[in-house]
């Protein structure tokens, strides 16, 4: 079994553990219309968006994307709370999704802003992401 296959299996196992022991959450990634041009395909009769690099998408890129995930909440050590990088009310999660700074994390009725997201990614396979949210 190759390393990549082993890491994919590890990612599946971690996702299963987060599903069983964590809680459901949603990552909301804001959309951006900047750099996208809306075009019409007369052949199929559908609209699409194309960027300057030729990437084509069929969903409006200006709309927010909702990504379901599972999270397990942890705590920051008191020694990590410095009042600037880590604030007293910041929350720490392990997430099965791939949040990035600027995303929102919706969990337990709260809407949190992702401040920092550090993926554990050996061999280009994301096993989980450590998320700091406030």
SSE arrangement:
Layout: H1 3-21, E1 23-29, E2 36-41, E3 46-51, E4 56-57, E5 65-74, E6 91-95, E7 104-107, E8 110-120, E9 128-133
Antiparallel strand pairs: 1-5, 1-7, 2-3, 3-4, 5-6, 6-9, 7-8, 8-9
Helix content: 10-25%
The secondary-structure class comes to: mainly beta
Order of helices and strands: HEEEEEEEEE
The chain-level mean pLDDT equals 91
Q: What is the first-to-last residue Cα distance?
A: 40 Å
The total of helices stands at 1
Q: Nearest-angstrom radius of gyration?
A: 18 Å
For the biggest β-sheet, the strand order reads 1-5-6-9-8-7
Total beta strand runs? 9
Major sheet details: 6 strands, antiparallel, barrel
Strand content: 35-45%
Query: Spans of 5+ residues with little confidence (pLDDT < 50)?
Result: none
Tell me about this structure.
With 134 residues, this protein is mainly β. Strand 3 and strand 4 form a beta hairpin.
Keywords summarizing the entry:
1 helix; three-stranded antiparallel beta sheet; six-stranded antiparallel β-barrel; mainly beta; single chain; globular
Compose a concise summary of this entry:
This protein is mainly beta. 14% of the residues lie in helices and 43% in strands.
